[in-house]
Amino acid sequence: MSEFKSESISALVDNYSPSTDDSVSANLVDNMLKDEHLSSTWQTYHLIGDVLRDEVPQSLQLDLSKTISAAIALEATILSPNSSTQAFVQQDAKSDDSSSADNVLLPVSETVQNTNTVIDASMRFKAKVSSFVKPMGQVAIAASAAALMIVGVQNNVAENSIPVTPSQVVQTMPLTGYANPVSFTMQSPQGESSQQNKKVLNEQLAGERAAQQRRLHALLKDHNQQVKLGSNIK
Amino acid sequence: MKFSALLLLLLSVNVSAIAADTESAKLWLEQLSKSLRQLNFTTSFVVVKNNHAEPYHWLHGIAEDSQELEIFSRLNGPRRDILRQGAIVSYIEPEQEPYSIISNDVNSPIPTIFRGDISAIEDSYRFISVGRSRVLGRVAQLVRIVAKDKYRYSYWLWLDQQTGLLLKMAIFTRQGLLLEQIQFTHLEVSEQLSENLVQLQSSELPGVIKLNNQQQNKSLSWQVDWLPQGFAVIKSNQHQLNNYHQGDDKAVEFMLFSDGLVEISVYVSLSHEKFRAPEYASDGATIIFNQIIQGIEVGVVGAIPLATAKKIAESIVAVTKMKVSNNTQRGIKGAER
User: What family, per the record (chain B) (predicted)?
Assistant: First the structure.
C-alpha cells in the first residue's frame, strides 16, 4: 500500500496528474495533505529531483518551517528590554499614586511591583548573559568567516586566476574620465574664465586654444624625439 | 580559542605569501626580459589611450650571427616604423627623412626597461605577483609594478605563463584609474626567423646620424630643484623647439630625466609674456604641462601625475655662478633631492 502510494507520489512529482495517468490515484493529494509521512515523502522526492537536476541551493535547508518554529521557541530573551522599561513605567506609576495619596491602592501596587522586580531581575540576568554571549559568538563566526574568505580569495587567485582587483570591470570601459575623441584633453583655467563672456571672446578663445594645443603638441613631439635620441650621458 | 588559533595560523601563512609574491614577481619580470631578448616572436598589439586605439605589429628574432632583429610598425595612419639590427635603430616617420641612431633603447610603446635589468627600478617600484588570469586565450601571470611614492604611476603586466612574454599592460594612477593600456591580440613564438625579419636582415638601414649638437652638455642657466626619488638626469642640452608655426622656432634649455621606467622632459625658456596660467594636456598616461611664471616658460612632459609635473615646474631655479662650472653634477644633484 505504502509502496504504491510512494510510487504515485513519485509520478506526481514527475508531473503526471490523476487525469492523465492511472498510476496516480485521484485522491492522492488529499491523502498526502493529511498524512505526515506521505507529505515528507513528497518533500524528499522533490529534493532528490533537485539534486539530480543539479538545482540544489548552496545551503540546504531541509525543513524551513521546523527551524523557524524552533528558533521562535528559543527566542525568550526578547522580553528583557521590555522588562526594564516596564519597571521604569511602573515606578512612574507608583510615584503618581503616592502623589495622588490613594493610600488604599498603594500596598497592592507595591506588592505587584515587588514580584515584578523579582521576575525582572532574573530575566535581566538571563538577557545580560545572552547579550554578552551572543556578540561574542557573532564575532567569532564573523572572524572565522573572514578568515575563510581570505583563504577563499587566495585560493581563487591561485586556481581560478581572477585578480582581486577591479581591473576586470575597468577593462571593459577603458579610459573613463579621459574620454576625448581628439588626441588631447585640454584644460586651462584661463579658458574656463573666458567662457563667461563667450560670444565676445569666442574667436579669441579659439585662437588661444589653438595656440595652446600647438605649444603642448610641440612639447610632446619634442619629448618623444628626445627620448628616441636617447642619453648622451654614459 | 579555536578561532583565534586558526586566525593566527592564517595570518602567518599570508605574511609569508606576500614575501613570496615579491620574489616570484621579480622572477617573472626577469623571465620577461630574457624572453624579449632571446625569443623569435611575432605579435600584434593595440595601444588604447584617450578613447582611441592604435594597432601595432611587433616582430623580434635572433639572426644566425646572434644579432637581434626587431620591427615595430604602426598599422593605422601614416607609416611609422622602427627597425633594429643589433645596436642600430632606425626610425621611419612621416615628418622627416628616415634616420638611424646607435642605441640600446627602442622608443616603442613597450618600456625599454622590460628587456633590461629590472632590478634597476627596484628602489622606486615594488613588484607584486598577484595571480593568474586568462589573457589572449592563454594562462597569464599578473605582475604589478607599483610605485613606492605618489609621484608616479603603477604598471600592471600580464605575462604569458609559458614563455613569459607580455600579453597585456596597463598603467594605473594611485587611485586605480586606468590611463593607458596595451592589449596584445596575437602572439606566435617560433623556432625560425619570420620572413619579414629575414628581409630586414639583408636590407640596408638609413644612415646613422651623428648627434653632434647633443654630444656635449652645455652649461645651462636653469636647474630643477626637486624631482621624485630615483630620477636622474640622462641628458641636457639647448635646442630649437619647433612650434609648428611658420618656422617660429624657439630656443629652449632641455633636460631629460629617467627613473629607469619613465622619462621626464623639462623645457625652460625666457618668454616675452610675463605670466601664463598653467595649462596641460594628457596623452594617455603622458602629461604635457606648460606655464609661464615671471617671464620664465617651463614645460614638463612625461608619464607622471599632474601634481608631480607641477611640482617639478615650480622647482625651477636659476643656476648660481658657482654651479655652472659643473653642470653634470648639478643635474644629478637635482635628482637626489
Answer: Belongs to the RseB family.
Q: Are both B32 and B131 inside the same structural domain?
A: yes
Buried-state track B183-217, b at ≥16 Cβ within 10 A, e below 16: bbeebeeeeebbeebeebeeeebeeeeeeeebeeb
Q: Among B169, B202, B235, give the residue marking a domain's end.
A: B202
A152 vs chain B: nearest CA distance in angstroms? 11
pLDDT value for A45: 83
> Which candidate, B115, B101, B99, B135, places its Cα nearest to that of B41?
B115
Q: Does the residue B331 lie in any domain? A: yes
| Tens-digit pLDDT profile for residues A111-133 | 444 444 444 444 555 545 555 55
Q: What are B157's strand-pairing partners?
A: B143, B169
By Cβ distance, the residue of A165, A182, A227 closest to B263 is A227
Residues A48-87 have pLDDT tens digits of 888 888 776 666 666 677 777 888 777 765 555 544 444 4
Whether residue B213 is predicted with pLDDT greater than 90 in this model: the reply is no
The ipTM estimated for the assembled molecules is: 0.83
pLDDT number for residue B53: 92
Domain coverage including residue A195:
187-234
The chain B residue lying nearest A180, using CA atoms, is B50
The answer to whether A220 contacts B214, with C-beta atoms less than 8 Å apart, is no
What's the confidence (pLDDT) of residue A51?
80
Q: Report yes or no: B328 at the A interface, CB cutoff 8 Å.
A: yes
Residue A181: closest C-alpha in chain B = B51
**B66 and B124 together in one domain:** yes
Residue B70 distance to chain A (closest CA, Å) = 16
* Domain end residue (candidates: B156, B180, B202): B202
Examine residue A179 and state whether it is found in any structural domain, yes or no: no
Residue B247 sits in the same domain as residue B128 = no
Sole residue written with cell 521604569: A88
Quote the mean pLDDT of chain B. 86
Report the amino acid identity of residue B68: E
| A83 shares its domain with A48 | no
Residue B153 has pLDDT above 90, yes or no: yes
Asked if B8 has any chain A CB less than 8 Å from its own CB, the reply is no
Quick check: is B328 in a domain? yes
> Looking at residues B177-201, what average pLDDT do you find?
93
Per-residue pLDDT at B82: 93
pLDDT recorded at residue B154: 95
Q: Which of A228, A5, A121 minimizes the C-alpha distance to B104?
A: A228
pLDDT in tens, B228-278: 999 999 888 888 887 655 556 678 899 999 999 999 999 999 888 888 899
* The total number of structural domains that make up chain B: 2
Q: Are residues A150 and A206 in the same domain?
A: no
B247 and B267 together in one domain: yes
In a domain, A166, yes or no: no
CA–CA gap between residue B39 and residue B41 (Å, rounded): 6
Domain residues for the domain of B34 are: 10-202
Strands (E), chain B: 40-49, 52-62, 68-74, 80-85, 88-92, 99-102, 125-135, 138-147, 154-160, 166-172, 178-190, 222-224, 232-241, 250-258, 263-270, 276-283, 286-293, 296-302, 316-318
